[in-house]
Amino acid sequence: MRRTIVVVGTLLLGVGAVMAQQEIAVQQDNLMRSQAKSLYTVIQKMTKGDIPYNQKAVDEALTNLEADVAKIAKTFEVNPKQDVVNAKFGASQKIWQNKADFDSKIPPVQKAIADVKGKVKDVASLKAAYTSVNDRCTDCHETYRLKLK
Ligand code: HEC
């Protein structure tokens, strides 16, 4: 009886840990998706003319992006050791073998955003801003993001 309780308890703890790990992976993915919303759904679409240029939306997108990027280091502190179920992209285990190098990819993104913030005034300057920020996102993805499907 006592043994059964211990076994069931251990199993429950195991399930809890797996769920917590999936939750961490989801949080990390959600942060990236939120960044994508600002940079791709708003800014990139405007550069392509898919949606009309809107100064307020540009300024908001850059402000949101800045806030999100500042959360990357902390959000990726814990290794979830699993991917989000059905995700297209996953986090490389290299992140947690070399977290300092991973973190070093963040300030260049912040600098690219700071450099263009308040200076974007039209589609042409938005295009330049998009490229300079996106190139810095890519610098991290090349090493630390895995394509799963
Ligand atoms: C310091 C590293 C790093 C930086 C900087 C970074 N990312 Fe990521 N990104 C990752 C990792 C790791 C993943 C894969 C794991 C995940 O999705 O959480 C990822 C995944 C993504 C995904 C795929 C999400 C999905 O599952 O569909 C998008 C979109 C994305 N990032 C956008 C951005 C944008 C936009 C920026 C720049 C503003 C950016 N990222 C900056 C590390 C980074």
TrEMBL record:
Post-translational modification: Binds 1 heme group per subunit.
One matching Pfam family: Cytochrom_C_2
Signal peptide location: 1-20
An example Gene Ontology CC term for this record: periplasmic space
Superkingdom of the organism of origin: Bacteria
Keywords from the UniProt entry: Electron transport, Heme, Iron, Metal-binding, Signal, Transport
Keyword Metal-binding included in the entry's annotation: yes
Binding site for heme c: C137, C140, H141
GO process terms (BP): electron transport chain
Recorded GO MF terms: electron transfer activity; heme binding; iron ion binding
This protein's name: Cytochrome C555
Species the sequence originates in: Bradyrhizobium centrolobii
Lineage summary: Bacteria, Pseudomonadati, Pseudomonadota, Alphaproteobacteria, Hyphomicrobiales
